[in-house]
Each structure stands twice: as structure tokens, then as C-alpha cells.
């Protein structure tokens, strides 16, 4: 069944990688005519085969153009699209907004038809094969407003975001770049540097890795070439945060130089407690500040066992708020970390144990 769209279309998507293909898949599911373009004919062919849209033809007149190209060419591609389609509104989905806007101004581009945006969504797997129609559902999508475009003209971008199931967030380009430096770009740097410590680490140490270190280093598997571009375009805010982070590390290292010195343990405790306070500020499920309690259940690594656990949690009448699965090293057992409301933990623990499940914590 085709769901009614707010957009009229056609929509031209330039860049048939992960984000561009996902935009195409989401819009075609709503019946929008999506036109795909990419410097790589192979990417276009794959995206077309996946159902993300069609190839460009002479006479195309898009209502909206979405530029989903690497950051170092985003501004030049946006400028070319503005010139080629004088009746279209153009947005880009690059993860840095101020540098693109400034470069477009230097190029003399028509900023009255351009507004940058950025969906806070992605996957470690890139390219068109990583595309998903639901990639943006429930995710924040920033619109980086500027004075040269009217609210009415920018309405097509709002329609795009709502059609794809994302949550619209309005920010200035400066606010956006400072925000992503803190919650995306610096974590990428820290994760990569942490994972780099494993290169020469003894195998005996690496084999001890559990879910904690995997969580910290998950994004270290991201594409280095892409991140060189992103960090270069947002260097100043990232540098400022890293300098402050260096000061934090220096204080921590100073306390560990002599753990028995007066005040040293207090300093360590205060730094760790500060982490607790920071984590508590992160939005929880559905953007709320509601917190959950975790229950760890041992699940045999056999077909159907995880599905049985989830079904029985439903039968018990407890809502599953979140789930994370970790594999125990050396044995055929998975550790399912079940997040539930605190008031349901005792009841759920009793009922699962009565059904034969082993509770690990």
C-alpha cells in the first residue's frame, strides 16, 4: 500500500550511496517519482535495481533536489544543481553545514533556493546496498536555516523530513556544527584512538574484550576517508572540545600518578561521577528522560531461543524497552541484556526463572 506523501515531486537525489539510496527508497515507497544521479554508474544501477528510483532523463523538472555526496564536493555539486534546475529547491545531507553555506556564498550560488540539512542517521555499512527505506524513521533531522531563504520555500525540506518519518529539528549552521562536534565528531576521534591501542596489544588482552569496549569502539570501524573530510570541514569546534578533553585527561592522569596522595581518590571519583551526570542528560526512549533497569538473561546459542525469550516476556505482560545481545566467550551462550521499567524487574525475574531461564544479573 502506498502511503500519501506531502511532497509533490519529482525529487532528484544526487549521490546513490547509503543516505541517497535510503532517501530514494523511502520516497518511492510513498509513490514519489525519484530521479537518481551519481558519478558512479554502478551505484545508480544498484540503487535503481533496489527500487530507489529511476535514472535521469532529459526534461526532468524536479521539485526538490537532495545532494548526498561526500563533504569535500558537496558545495560544488549543490551549486551545479542550483544552476541546472532554476525552479528547484536544493538541500544537502552533509554532516557539516557552515562550511558548505560559506562556500556556496563565495561561489555566488542562489542561496534563496538552498537550505542545508542533516539526518542524524547512518550505518557502518555504506554504499547503495546499505540503503533502507526506514533509515530515518524516528531520527532527528536538522534543518540549518539561514536568512536568504524564505520559510515558504523551505517548506519542501520539511515535507521531505516528515515523509521519511524523521523528526525535524531547526538550528543555525553554527549551532549544528557545534552540536555534531560534541555528540558525533569527537566521539568518532576518541573511539578511533581507543581502538588504535589494540593494534599492538597482546592477543590474551584483546580476547578479554566484552560489550563495554565494543560499545566504546563501535564507530571506529567507520570510513577513514569520509571522516578526514568531515573533521577537516569542522576542525575548529572539534579541536576546542578535544583540548578540553585533554585537560580532563591531564587531571585524571595527575590523580593516578599517586593514588594515595590527599584528594587523589576524590578527584577520580568526581570525574567518574561527572560521567554519570552527563549520561543522564542523554535522551532515552522516544526522546524522554525515563530510565530503565537492565536484566541479563542467558540464552543458548540455538535457533529460536531468542525469539522464545522475547515471546515469553510479552506473555508475562512486561514491555521490552531495549535489548542488547552479547556472546559469552568460549561457550555457546548469549547474554541478552533486557531493559525494562524498574517496577517490573522483580516480577519479570520471578516469572522468567519459573520458566527455566537462567538470570545472570
Automatic annotation (TrEMBL):
It catalyses: prephenate + NAD(+) = 3-(4-hydroxyphenyl)pyruvate + CO2 + NADH. SUPFAM superfamilies: 6-phosphogluconate dehydrogenase C-terminal domain-like (SSF48179), ACT-like (SSF55021), NAD(P)-binding Rossmann-fold domains (SSF51735). Signal peptide: none annotated. It is an enzyme of class 1 (oxidoreductase). Pfam families: PDH_C, PDH_N. Its EC number is 1.3.1.12. Keywords: Amino-acid biosynthesis, Aromatic amino acid biosynthesis, NAD, Oxidoreductase, Tyrosine biosynthesis. Residues 9-290 form the Prephenate/arogenate dehydrogenase domain. InterPro entries: 6-PGluconate_DH-like_C_sf, ACT-like_dom_sf, ACT_dom, NAD(P)-bd_dom_sf, PDH_C, PDH_N, Preph/Arog_dehydrog, Prephen_DH. Residues 294-361 form the ACT domain. NCBIfam families: PRK06545.2-3, PRK06545.2-4. This is Prephenate dehydrogenase. It comes from Leifsonia stereocauli.
Amino acid at each position: 500500500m502506498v502511503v500519501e506523501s506531502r511532497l509533490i515531486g519529482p525529487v532528484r537525489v544526487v549521490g546513490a550511496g547509503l543516505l541517497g539510496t535510503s532517501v530514494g527508497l523511502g520516497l518511492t515507497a510513498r509513490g514519489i517519482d525519484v530521479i537518481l544521479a551519481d558519478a558512479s554508474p554502478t551505484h545508480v544501477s544498484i540503487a535503481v535495481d533496489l527500487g530507489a528510483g529511476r535514472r535521469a532523463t532529459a526534461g526532468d523538472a524536479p521539485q526538490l533536489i537532495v545532494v548526498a555526496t561526500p563533504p569535500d564536493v558537496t558545495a560544488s555539486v549543490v551549486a551545479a544543481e542550483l544552476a541546472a534546475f532554476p525552479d528547484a529547491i536544493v538541500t544537502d545531507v552533509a554532516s557539516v553545514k557552515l562550511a558548505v553555506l560559506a562556500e556556496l556564498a563565495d561561489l555566488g550560488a542562489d542561496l534563496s533556493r538552498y537550505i542545508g540539512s542533516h539526518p542524524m542517521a547512518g550505518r557502518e555499512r555504506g554504499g547503495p546496498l546499505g540503503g533502507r527505506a526506514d533509515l530515518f524513521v524516528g531520527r532527528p533531522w536538522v534543518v540549518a536555516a539561514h536568512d536568504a531563504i524564505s520559510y515558504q520555500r523551505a517548506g519542501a525540506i520539511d515535507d521531505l523530513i516528515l515523509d521519511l518519518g524523521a523528526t525535524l529539528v531547526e538550528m543555525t549552521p553554527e549551532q549544528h556544527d557545534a552540536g555534531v562536534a560534541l555528540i558525533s565528531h569527537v566521539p568518532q576521534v576518541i573511539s578511533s584512538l581507543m581502538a588504535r591501542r589494540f593494534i599492538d596489544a597482546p592477543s590474551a588482552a584483546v580476547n578479554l574484550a566484552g560489550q563495554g569496549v565494543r560499545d566504546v569502539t563501535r564507530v571506529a570501524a567507520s570510513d577513514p576517508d569520509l571522516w578526514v573530510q568531515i573533521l577537516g570541514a569542522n576542525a575548529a569546534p572539534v579541536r576546542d572540545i578535544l583540548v578540553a578533553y585533554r585537560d580532563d585527561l591531564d587531571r585524571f592522569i595527575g590523580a593516578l600518578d599517586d593514588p594515595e596522595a590527599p584528594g587523589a581518590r576524590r578527584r577520580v571519583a568526581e570525574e567518574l561521577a561527572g560521567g554519570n551526570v552527563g549520561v543522564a542528560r542523554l535522551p532515552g526512549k522516544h526522546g524522554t528522560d525515563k530510565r530503565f533497569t537492565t536484566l541479563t538473561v542467558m540464552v543458548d546459542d540455538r535457533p529460536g531461543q531468542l525469539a522464545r525469550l522475547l515471546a515469553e516476556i510479552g506473555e508475562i505482560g512486561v514491555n521490552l524497552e531495549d535489548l542488547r545481545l552479547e556472546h559469552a566467550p568460549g561457550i555457546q551462550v548469549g547474554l541478552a541484556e533486557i531493559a525494562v521499567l524498574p517496577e517490573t524487574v522483580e516480577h519479570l525475574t520471578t516469572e522468567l526463572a519459573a520458566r527455566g531461564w537462567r538470570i545472570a544479573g
